[in-house]
Sequence to fold (297 residues):
Amino acid sequence: MTENLSKTMRSLRLSGALESLDVRLQEAAGNGLNHAEFLELIFQDELAVRGNRQVQRRLKAARFRDHKTLDQFNWSFNPATPRKPIYDLACGRFIREARDVLLIGPPGTGKSHLAQAIGWQAIKSGFIVLYRSIFDVVRDFLHDEAIGVEEKVLGKYLKPDLLIIDDMGMKQLPKRSGEYLFEVIMRRYETRSTLMTSNRPLEDWGKLIGDVPSATAILDRFLHHAEIIRITGKSYRLRQAGQAETGAEENSKPATAPTGSDEVSENSKPARAPAGSKRKAASSKPATAPTGSGEEK
Fold:
C-alpha cells in the first residue's frame, strides 16, 4: 500500500477499509480475486466498522443505567416471568408499529433489567433509544423550564424510536410532573414507542403524579396501543441481601481447631498422678459437681 493511497482513503474517511487493506490485498493476490471482488470485500469491511461505531455511539447516547442483556437475566429465579413476550419485544416489531409497552410488578423482580435489555436489542437492530428514570424526566423539565428552554428538552424526548421511562411508582413526584409526562406521552402517541416500568397499580398513578386528570389522560393514550406484561415473583435484591448477610455470619464465627489437632490447651491436659501413687479406676469414686456449680447433687 502506497502512502498516497493511504492519504486518499483517510481523506475519504474510509478508515475501516484502510485497517483491513493489507490483509485484503494479500487475500486478493493469494486467491486470484478480480477487482470487483476485492472492492466488495474492503467496502464490506468499511460498512462493518461504521456499523459498530454507530452502535457504540447510540449505546452511549441511550444513557442506560447498566449494560443489561437478556442472556444475563436469571429466568429460573422467577419461573413465572413471561419469557416469550419479552423475546418478542426484543425483536423490535412493536417499535416499527409505534406501540407502547408497560412492565408492571413488585420491586426487585427484574423490570429494569428487562427494559434495558430490550433497549439494547433495539439499538443493535438500528433504532435510536433513550433510557431515563421518571425522576430524570421530571428533573430535566424542571431544569430547562428554569432557564427557559423547555422545547429543547422536549425535542430530546420526542426524537428516539424507543423511549424507556423506568421506576414509575418508586415515590410521589413533584408538582407539575403530570404535565411534563403528559406532554411527552401525547406527542409520542402513535408516532414513537414508549416503554414504561412501574411497581404500583395503575389506579395509584393519580396519587403518584398528584394530578388525577393528568394521570387519566396519560393512561388513556399510553394504554391505547400498549402491551401490558406483568412481572411477578421474588425480589432479586432481597435474595442478594440475604446471601450477603449469611456470608457475613459465616465469616464472623470463631475459628476452631481442626478435628484431631495436636494443639491442646494447657487447661485441657489431664493432670498426672504423683510418682508412686496408685491409680484408681474411674468408677471407684462418684463424680461430684465443681464447687459453686448450679447443678443439683
